[in-house]
Amino acid sequence: MTAAAPSVGVPLPPRPGRLLRMGRTVRYYVPAIMVFIGVIVLWELAVRGFGMQAFILPAPSAIGAALVENWGAGRWPLFEAARVTLFEAVGGLLIGTTVGLIVAFGIARWATARDAVLPFAIAANAIPIIAIAPIFNAWFGITNPLSKMMIAALLVFFPIMINVTRGLTQVEPSALELMRSYAASDWEILRKLRLPNALPYFLTALKVATTLSLIGAIVGEYFGGASNVIGRVVVQSASALRFDVTWAAILLGAITGIAFYLAIVALERVLIPWHSTVRGEHPG
Question: At what angle do helices 195-222 and 145-169 cross, to 10 degrees?
Fold first, then answer.
């Protein structure tokens, strides 16, 4: 009897299902990419064709040149500005998320807390951020990054609190009844039912909160702060009529926001790979 030959590990081709999902994802983003390229081309042609002045609308090529010129040096070092602004936004995201989670768990657990806290939370969300920014700068220090973090945290708090509260409370009645029929404790219901149900809600709110935190940080910077931040670069370059730098700073802020958002999307893929938003079930 001869011994069986040892099997050699051969990489298997990707499963058809995975290839199908990848193709669907590519098709989903291709129209947006094509529209973006078309807008850039038309923008460049319009500026050159109509001879627009830079203070009205600089050409994309001029904005790109300003971004390269001021990337790490010059009067407005844009990379350093993006790094500091991102630091403020991340700090605000952490503060706002922490407070939002604490309040959400309290509201979901006690009806009295909901009646006491929710009106104040709604009122805080209704305050225009442009009105509260100078006050926070005065409270925490105009050059202190904490003032920008608190402005960002105020924007982040509400969507986190509302979405997590919904996730904790809007569970399937049949699943809740089943767990209670097995005499599950409140802690077991929270750990095995409410938290898994709330996780997609939380990550959805977190994706919204990333952009809100960046907006809050930049708005706070606009009203004063260190010179090496995106908000101050926008103000100072516009005052010096360097609108190519102004647009470059705006572009860098947008790129930073997209990167921040995609980081949460990657986290979502790790934490809830079973959810429809992760499996690539895009609309259409």
Answer: 160
Residue pair 229/164 in contact by the 8 Å Cβ criterion: no
CA 151, CA 172: separation in Å to the nearest integer? 36
* pLDDT tens by residue, 87-129: 999 999 999 999 999 999 988 888 787 778 878 888 877 888 8
Interior/surface letters 40-60, b for 16+ CB within 10 angstroms, e for the rest? eeebeeebeeeeeebeebbbb
Q: What percent of the chain has pLDDT over 70?
A: 87
* 141-169 average pLDDT score: 91
Q: Which ranges of the chain does DSSP label H, i.e. alpha helix?
A: 16-50, 60-69, 78-109, 111-126, 129-140, 145-169, 173-181, 186-189, 195-222, 230-239, 243-271
Residue ranges of domains in the chain, CATH in brackets: 58-271 (1.10.3720.10)
Mean pLDDT of 160-172: 89
* pTM summary value: 0.79
Q: What is the rounded distance in angstroms from the CA atom of residue 261 to the CA atom of residue 149?
A: 18
How far apart are alpha carbons 158 and 206 in whole angstroms?
11
